[in-house]
């Protein structure tokens, strides 16, 4: 059963580390400022699991949490993610009441 869905047009900064918006954050576990939270995400199109790290930024001007890890960059490289692509992220409950995170990517340049 699908619980929630999020859509984001990616910016250049999101290609390096995905800035997690408030709407997306509502679907995720609570951010712990002292440690990164592992988030297992299933890529619906490539049928691959990635483990992103949800990290709360403690310094600097911008405090929004990010997916900041090698796995996010692996996803970016695997999928050829560029600014302007649309990321879909959603949560599903499986029959055993476990939360599963899913991700898909739409590349607007591919379809005129």
Automatic annotation (TrEMBL):
It is found in: Nucleus. Keywords: DNA-binding, Nucleus, Transcription, Transcription regulation. Residues 6-109 form the TF-B3 domain. One of its GO terms (molecular function) is DNA binding. Its main location: nucleus. One of its GO terms (cellular component) is nucleus. It comes from the Eukaryota. SMART domains: B3 (SM01019). This is TF-B3 domain-containing protein. It comes from Prunus yedoensis var. nudiflora. The lineage of its organism: Eukaryota, Viridiplantae, Streptophyta, Embryophyta, Tracheophyta.
């Amino acid at each position: 059963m699908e619980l929630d869905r999020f859509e984001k047009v990616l910016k250049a900064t999101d290609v390096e580390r995905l800035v997690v918006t408030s709407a997306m954050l509502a679907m995720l576990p609570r951010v712990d400022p002292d440690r990164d939270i592992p988030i297992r995400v299933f890529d619906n199109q490539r049928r691959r699991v990635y483990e992103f790290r949800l990290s709360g930024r403690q310094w600097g001007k911008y405090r929004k949490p990010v997916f900041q890890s090698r796995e996010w960059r692996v996803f970016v490289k695997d999928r050829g993610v560029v600014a302007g692509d649309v990321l879909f992220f959603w949560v599903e409950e499986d029959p055993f009441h476990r939360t599963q995170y899913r991700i898909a990517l739409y590349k607007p340049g591919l379809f005129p």
